[in-house]
Amino acid sequence: MARKILIGGFKHETNTFSRLPTGLDAYRARAFHVGDAIVEAYGATRTEIAAFLDACKRHGWQPVCSVVGDATPSGFVTKEAFDTVAGLMLEAIDKGGPIDAILLQLHGAMVCEHTPDGEGSLLRVIRDKVGPKVPIGVTLDLHANVTHAMAHHADVMVSYRTYPHIDTYEIATECADLIARTLAGEIHPTVTLAQGVMIDGLDHGRTTTPGPMTEALAMASEMAKAPGVHSVSVLAGFAKADIPDVGPSALVVGEGHDPRYREMATQIMTFAWETRHRTSLTPLMAAEAVRIAKEKGRIGAPVVIADYADNPGGGGYTDSMGLVKAMIDAGLESAAMSAICDPDAAQACHKAGVGARIPLAVGGKIDPLFGPTIEAEGTVTAIGDGRFRIEGPMQNGVMVDMGPSAVFKVGGVEIVIASKRYQNYCLGFFSSLGIDPRQRAVLGVKSMQHFRAAYQPIASEVLIVDEGNGITSNDISKLPYSHVRRPIFPLDLD
Q1: CA–CA gap between residue 239 and residue 477 (Å, rounded)
Q2: Which domains are delineated in the chain?
Q3: Element spanning 493, H or E
Q4: Going by DSSP bridges, is the β-strand pair 387-389/461-465 parallel, antiparallel, or unpaired?
Q5: Which of 23, 101, 242, 490 has the smallest C-beta neighbourhood within 10 Å, fewest atoms?
Q6: What is the separation, in whole angstroms, between the first and last Cα of the chain?
Q7: How far is CA 335 from the centre of its chain?
Q8: What pLDDT score does 494 carry?
């Protein structure tokens, strides 16, 4: 009889400084699939869930699909959302059991209304349900804030090794194959965790340029060759979480219990401390970035400007208008920005129709602390339902639904306005609304790093803007931490 493998996912990167709660509606707005709908949503993609499903075919397992929920980063996950997803997983265990193993895609930086350790709490209730002998394999985002509860309740835990995250399928395959070896009795894995003494580190995990993260990953790769070591993961952590377990960490999946594993993980964290001041980031003010872009950008070889401080991929509101205003004020031509989240403005564009010239108030509506609304007269040049399938290297094949969307052109700047918050990491965030990003001289994106996977290959230059006007700004000294463990860098130690 085929072994039964529970497959599920519950992802969220929680920015505890965000005023936007993350409830069930936030999951339904992006991804919330139950049972057989999981296969339909992810079967033809390059994602972790697809890798889990493919592993079932390869190993002759019977998948038991529970629930996959993924919400755009924002504030605390509500207890209702947590209880609903956890309940669906437990229900699937009851209905599909007896379960032989469990494969979960998690993020690792979920903070809930009722607990600072979302993933640790989820794994605890699952472990209590299935008992100590059912192996649990977990994939994590490179920006997980890993807790001891998470490490304790999992048998295998593997994180991404790329940022942008273009290796999710491969990491999930590695995780599933280790669980296969566990089921076969070939290995008896345990997870060992070491945490750093920093809120942020390892160049925030950037792997598109040589630096602390790539060097730490090289260390981990060598360690993984040691006898008894099955996998070594390096995690940069997610700094925008005011919780005790925030920050970089290292995981060693090894055979049984061996003090060498803690020594390895600690060695990586020592390196993280020693390199805490090294960074590949060179942020600019918006006016300076736009000046450079105006000088160097040309059709066919655009300059790409990333709005780091208002990145929805880290919990940003996606409606800070500082970069857009700088683009308009500079009189840029053949320029485009994607995407501003403003459902009211999108609705006004739909009501007016393509070709209409209207006054419009755009952005700056969630928190005025990060800049005012722009009121401008412009032309509606496109409207759409905001749906497209990702064709780039990250999350390839996944369906995006930005909600009712539009393009509003002010001067020479086309502003993509969406009804939902999404980080721009695929050319489709422009092309789905008729803008060919290759045929623009300047492109603005709401992102801090993931955009590079799709945009760096077409860009003549990439610039980063961070004026501190957003809750994902690199300057964490402005954030009111009160729950992190102390002492910790940079609040106390240096």
Answers
A1: 11
A2: 4-274 (3.40.50.2300), 286-473 (no CATH)
A3: none
A4: unpaired
A5: 490
A6: 58
A7: 27
A8: 87
Q: How far apart are CA 123 and CA 106, in angstroms?
A: 10
Per DSSP, the residues of 178-206 read: HHHHHHTTS--EEEEEEE-SBSS-GGGG-
* 24: its two tokens: 């069930």
Give the tokens for residue 198.
């920093």
- In the chain, DSSP finds a helix count (H) and a strand count (E) of 14, 19
Note whether 30 and 90 are within 8 A (CB): no
Q: Which sign, positive or negative, has the C-alpha torsion 53, 58, 61, 62?
A: positive
Give CA 333 to chain center in angstroms.
32
Mean pLDDT for back-to-back runs of 10 residues, the chain (494 residues): 96 97 97 98 97 98 98 98 98 96 98 98 98 98 98 98 98 98 98 97 96 98 98 98 98 97 98 97 96 97 97 96 97 98 98 98 91 95 98 94 98 98 97 98 97 97 91 89 96 89
> What does the block give as tokens for 238?
């997610």
Q: Which two tokens stand for residue 16?
A: 């505890």
Residues across the chain: 494
Burial 419-441 (b: 16+ CB within 10 A, else e): bbbbbbbbbbbbebbebebeebb
Looking up tokens 């969630």, which residue turns up? 366
Instruction: Give CA torsion, residues 288, 475, 139, 124, to 10 deg.
Output: -150
Query: Do residues 89 and 66 make contact, with C-beta atoms less than 8 angstroms apart?
Result: yes
Residue 72, beta-bridge partner list: none
Cβ atoms within 10 Å, residue 255: 15
Asked whether 106 and 122 are in contact (CB, 8 A), the reply is: yes
Query: How far apart (Å, rounded) are the C-alpha atoms in residues 48 and 472?
Result: 26
| Nearest-angstrom CA–CA distance, 371 and 58 | 52
Alpha-carbon distance of 151 to 130, in angstroms, equals 17
Cα four-point dihedral sign 228, 230, 236, 239: negative
